[in-house]
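Workshop exercise sheet. Pairs work together: one partner reads the sequence aloud, the other fills in the structure field after running the prediction. Swap roles for the next sheet.
Pair: D.N. / O.F.
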Amino acid sequence: MEQFQVSVSVAPAAKVTFELVYEELLKRRLGVYELLLKVQPHQLVKHLQMDIHIFEPQGISFLETESTFMTNELADALTVSQNQTKVGLPQRAHIRFKPTVSQQQKSAEQQDTVVDGDFIIRYDVNRTLSGGSIQIENGYFVHYFAPEGLSTIPKNVIFVIDTSGSMMGKKIQQTREALIKILEDLRPEDHFNLISFSNKASQWKPSLVPASTQNVEEAKKYANSIQAQGGTNINDAMLLAVQLLDKATREEQLPSGSVSLLLLLTDGDPTVGETNPTKIQRNVQEAIGGQYSLFCLGFGFDVSYAFLEKLALDNGGLARRIYEDSDSALQLQDFYQEVANPLLTTVTFEYPGNAVEEVTQDNFPLFFKGSEMVVAGKLRAQSPDVLSATVSGQLVSVASHPGVEGWLQQAFRGARFKLQPVRLQPTDLGQVTKCPLPPWGTPDPTAWAGGGDSMR
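Structure field:
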C-alpha cells in the first residue's frame, strides 16, 4: 500500500480546493478489472460527489459497483449509465455517487456519517476469439492478450504456512479457515503438500500427493490442527519446499506438462536461522533456479512486504498483502483463485523488427484464468500499416470453443500445443484509447486511471 501525506495552512473561513491526479495500473484478476476507492470523510459533507468515467473501445461486457457502507438511502444517490450504441456493446460508462447530507446521516438525531468504507467498481471488456487487441497512440502501442476456451493445466502446489507466535489468535484461525477452503478447491489431477514453519520447518507428507478425496480430507484435519508458536524461519521452510519439488521432479512423480507452484504465507520478518533478507532471497532464487513460480502473501501491516515482493518477482510470481480484517480468510481464498487455474506456460510475444523498436516485456512464465498479459511497446518512425503479432505458448488441452481452430493449431508434443500467429488487421489498430501515455521507460505503462477517460 502506497501512502502520502500533505500538510497545508488554511486561513479561517477560507475556501481551498485540493486536486489529486494519479495514475494506477489496473490488473485483470478473476476475469474483471477492479478499482477500489476509500471513501472515509469522517464527517458529513455538504457537497460530496464522486464521478468515475470508463472508456473501452472494445466494448464494456460487464459492469457492477459495490460498497461496504451502502444503505437504501445512499443507493438513491448512486447512478450508473452506459452509452447505447447501434451495434455492439457500450464503450463508455459513467458512475456517479452524490449523496445529500441527510442521506449521509446515520439517523435524523445523529450527526455522524454512514459513509465510511470502500467503494468498488468492477468491469470487463468484450474479447475476440483471438484473445488479443492492440491500442495505439502517439507512436506507442499496448497489446492486451487474454485467450479464452483453454483447459486448466494440472498443478503441483506446496503451501508454506507461517505458524510462528506472531500468527497467534485471529490470524492463525483465519489461515486455517482459508486453507481448508483452498484444499477443497484442488482438482483430482493436482498434487500438493503442506509445510508449516516456526523455529523449524515440518512437512505434512514425505512427498507431494494427488489431490484425492482421502488426501484432501487428511490435509484439512492437519490444517485444522496447526498452532502458532515460536520464531520465523523462512529460509529453511522455503528450501525444504523446493527440495520436495526437486525430488518429485527427479523421480517423475508429477504429471507430464504440469505446473509447479510455491505459496508462502507469513506475517513477519525472519527471526530464526538465516535472517538476512538479501541472503534468503539469493538462497531461494538459487534453489528454485527458474523451475517453479513463487507467490508470497504478507499478512498484516507489520510484514516486510518489500522483501516478500522481491522474493516473488525474482521467481516468476507475485506478492500480495493480506489486510487484517474480518474478511482476511476471503482475501486469502481470492488470491489463491487467481493462481489456481494455469492455462498457458512459457508464453512469448514476437513483433516484426521493422515495426517495433522496443517493448516492456515479451515473455511470461505463466498465464492464469481470469488474468491478462499486457505488452507495451514503442513503434518505429516508419512502421508498416499493419502490425502483426505472434504469441506462442504451451498448454495441455483445448476446450471446445467455436472459432478456436482459427487461431489455435495443434502441434502435438506429448500433451502440448503451440499457439499460432495472431494477426491484427488495420481495423484492430483503430482501437485507440484517449488516455495520455507516460514517458517511455515508466514501469508498466499499460493502464491508467484518474485524470483521463480511460481506467485501463
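Discussion prompt: Residues 234-250 form the longest helix (17 residues). What would you look at next?
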